[in-house]
Amino acid sequence: MRIILFAGKGGTGKTCMAAATGVRSAALGHKTLVMSLDSAHSLADIFDVDRSLHDRAQGKAVKVAPNLWIQEVDVQEEIHRHWSEVYKYLAALFSTSGLDEVIADELAVLPGMEEVSGLLYINEYFKESSYDVVLLDCAPTGESLRFVSVPTALEWYMKKVFTVERRLFKIARPLIKTMTDIPVPEDSYFVALEDLHGKLTGVDAVLQDPTTTSVRLVTNPEKVVLKETQRAFMYFSLYGLCVDAVIINRILDERTGGAAFRKWRDTHQRYLKEADEAFAPVPRFHVHLFSDEIVGPKELARLGEVLYGEADPTAVLYDKPPYTFKKIKDTYRLTMTLPFATKEAVDLTMAGDEVIIRIGNLKRHVPLPKMAAGAEPTGATLDGHTLTVTFKPRRQPRPRP
Ligand SMILES: Nc1ncnc2c1ncn2[C@@H]1O[C@H](COP(=O)(O)OP(=O)(O)O)[C@@H](O)[C@H]1O
Ligand SMILES: [Mg+2]
């Protein structure tokens, strides 16, 4: 099964790109599912699907064309299916804190439940080979990063906290109950978590296998959007996912805008060049601003053509992680593959929270993870095609007296 995540800032065109890729993939004969993980679902609207039919699906997949299904994950339904024990405990906990019951119910939908629900489906579909291709229309960047970090976080929780906590409550539950009104999690809460964990086992390996899973970042040729895309690029790499394409959408060119938009067109051209510097050698796709919004299968097919031409959109377009970041004692080590690098000197410049790497006429902007921002580069070595840059935190922790 092939999995492709469409991620990026809100409004850049993720849903359109995921849907257009789906239309093209299905037309090529692949059994395809487009699944929306954004709670502000818009898949059904983009496909122009009858709402009543879609609402009856209650968050399950609906067939919209030969070989093509769409699914909008419904977190309320998922709570009934998988989370009821966890949810019941949290809602009870929040309501004893004096919160209004409606608010307590809302709060008990923890951040991450939507993402975990999506992961549960992916793991199930993967294990059962339910589809040839699953395209994920992700929530805006922050939430989709949480999506890929959940397996790591959950693994940590299960290993380090879960067993201890469960054992502790087993012993102390009767005593705690006599001391306080605050609800104590029953063992069913732990059983539910264990069951969820079991269902998620292996999903991290699926996401990190570049022959199965790729991320396609959707962006616009504008400063703020590109910056966020670069950060997303870095964070996905950090979690071990491969970005196999960057789609630069809504470009104003000679087709669009007329004389009044000349300045915008120049700006876009400038940022297209910057995008090359930031994302090469990962392939970049350019999509112009269409003359109207993109709705319905016909328009989606046209968008698919602009995007991929005759090519199969489900192919793996790039399978190397752009860079890895490791912390070794108190130094950070950034390793990246530069397929075109020669033996020329490496020049490093820090600019805010990113490092600019220049080798000959090659230039790369690499945003640093939050923890390493403000660190000072201490050295760079080029070994074959592998560049290694080391950083030291600027402020050393003060030694204890
Ligand atoms: N290349 C394009 N030309 C014209 N309209 C576009 C283009 N790409 C996206 N849109 C429109 O922009 C809006 C937002 O797109 P959408 O795919 O829903 O973004 P996202 O899912 O990233 O929030 C939609 O109304 C869509 O029709
Ligand atoms: Mg969307």
> Rg from C-alpha positions?
24 Å
Could you say which structural class the secondary elements and strand pairing correspond to? alpha/beta
Query: What level of helicity do the residues show?
Result: 40-55%
Mean pLDDT: 84
| Morphology | globular
Strand content: 15-25%
Largest sheet: 8 strands, mixed
Question: How would you characterize this protein structure?
Answer:
It is a single chain. With 401 residues, this protein is of the alpha/beta class. It folds into 2 domains: 2-76 and 113-149 and 203-308, Rossmann fold (3-Layer(aba) Sandwich); 323-392, Immunoglobulin-like, CATH 2.60.40.790. Helix content is 43%, strand content 23%. The protein has 12 helices and 15 strands. The protein has helices spanning 14-27, 43-46, 51-56, 75-96, 101-107, 113-128, 141-179, 187-200, 203-208, 223-238, 262-279, 297-308, and strands at 2-7, 32-36, 62-65, 68-72, 133-137, 213-219, 243-251, 284-288, 323-328, 331-337, 346-351, 354-359, 362-367, 376-383, 386-392. The protein has an 8-stranded mixed sheet, sandwiched between helices. A 4-stranded antiparallel sheet has the order 9-10-15-14. Strands 11-12-13 form a 3-stranded antiparallel sheet. α11 (262-279) links the parallel β7 (243-251) and β8 (284-288). The longest helix is centred in the middle third of the chain and has 39 residues, at 141-179. It is globular. It starts with a strand and ends in a 9-residue tail after the last strand. The model has no long low-confidence stretch (mean pLDDT 84). Bound molecules: adenosine-5'-diphosphate (ADP) and magnesium ion. Magnesium ion binds next to α1.
